[in-house]
Amino acid sequence: MQDLLKMKDNIVQLKLGHTAISDKALSEIAKLPVLMKLHLEHTAITNEGLKHIKNHKKLSYINLYKTKVSDEGLSYLQHIPTLEQIYVYQTGVTPAGIDKVRQSLSKSHLDTGNYQLPFLATDTTRYQ
């Protein structure tokens, strides 16, 4: 982490998905002033970790797919007005939590992964 902080003014995107990144490490990541994209998918990040980045000034993208984040953690993100894309599928986030954040970040795209696949007459398998 110390090596990252040496380059803090140059890091725009951080891909930490599928790593052992901890909530505590997010307190250091919050010190990256120009960070715009943060990939945390398939990690053990929790609500506690998101507290550290709630005041980030530049973050526009965060992927929380398959993390341990819930509505509480998502609520910290509503303090980041620059967020444009938030991915929360397969987390503990509920529709109520999503609605609350959508009110604060109305211009953000919140992806829950709950896609409805159309059934076509030529399909032999029906998705459920």
Automatic annotation (TrEMBL):
Q: Which InterPro entries match?
A: Leu-rich_rpt, LRR_dom_sf
Q: Which Pfam families match?
A: LRR_6
Q: Gene3D superfamilies, per this entry?
A: Ribonuclease Inhibitor
Entry protein name: Leucine Rich repeats (2 copies)
The record lists the organism as: Sphingobacterium spiritivorum (Flavobacterium spiritivorum)
